[in-house]
Amino acid sequence: MAAGTFLSSQQVVCPPSLLRRAAGKDPAVTAIVGADHPVVLDSARQAQETGIIVPVLIGSPSGIENAAQEIGWDISGLEIVEASGEASAAQAGAQLASSKRVQMVMKGHVHSDTFMRPLLTKEGRIRGAGRLSHVFHMTVPDNDKEIMLTDCALNVAPNIKTRIAIVENAATLAHKLGITTPRVALLAASETVSGAMPVTRECEQIAEHFSASDLNAEVFGPLAFDNIVSADAAKMKGIEHPVAGDADVIVVPTIEAGNALFKMMVYFMGACAAGIVLGGSVPALLTSRADPPAARLASAALGAISVRSD
Predict the structure, then answer these.
(1) Domains and CATH numbers, the chain
(2) What share of the chain is helix, strand, coil (3-state, %, to 5)?
(3) What is the per-residue pLDDT for 101?
(4) How far is CA 272 from CA 44, 149, 220, 296, in A?
(5) Residues 213-266: pLDDT tens digits?
(6) What's the angle, vertex CA 220, arms to CA 216 and CA 223, rounded to 5?
(7) How many Å apart are CA 219 and CA 186, to the nearest integer?
């Protein structure tokens, strides 16, 4: 990443802790939608060599073979599904998911809306009774701390009911990551409920809902960002709660807030962002076309963890 006034020059690193948790089990059969690009194939190769996935490559066979030659990867033993263009590749991925031939679907070199559109149709059938939501698992180099941000990519302006489902999806993922009682912070501009800021009241209602539920998680808000990440800031404001200053999950009120937050971590801190869509019959690994291989590998590891029952 180019150096600038605020931009991080650190190389993005896939967190070893995530790879360790993903290893040791049967690899997840994964459709790679738009596999005809060297960066996409390189991340698929890393995930296969780590034992995380068995890739099914979707795209132009000649393009996939040329990209594989460019990175020096022998793909003769892998299944290739021919598809011409982004829309055709996305449709093929959705069909593999709906027919249960794959356990995960990963976005390759295609646009996000093109990738997701067939997965959300009735024919795609990954959408069940639950609500789909997106989670970013964030880590920074040389730091064991991990934090999840949701929803930064799928639900634009979620209402209270939708944010409750977003919390439930994130808590389920946290449990599979080994976090027994995840601490979930509800982000707002202030920790004080105010009629001038409706989000604060919504956060309060969401927290009240979970205080009476049986979800194994600590859910608290509203909390301003400083009170979510800094125990000292929370203490100075008189906030005493397990979530304050030590959150595992941050639930954002809008996609704009989440998108800005995750990108600031990536560009200012060199964070690795593993992205996944939860709540469907199979997880969808929603990466950016600009993501480095490390972030794509982390997404594959996160997906492999999410599909396991233990």
Answers:
(1) 6-128+280-309 (3.40.50.10950), 130-279 (3.40.718.10)
(2) 40, 20, 40
(3) 94
(4) 17, 12, 26, 9
(5) 999 999 999 999 999 999 999 999 999 999 999 999 999 999 999 999 999 999
(6) 150
(7) 7
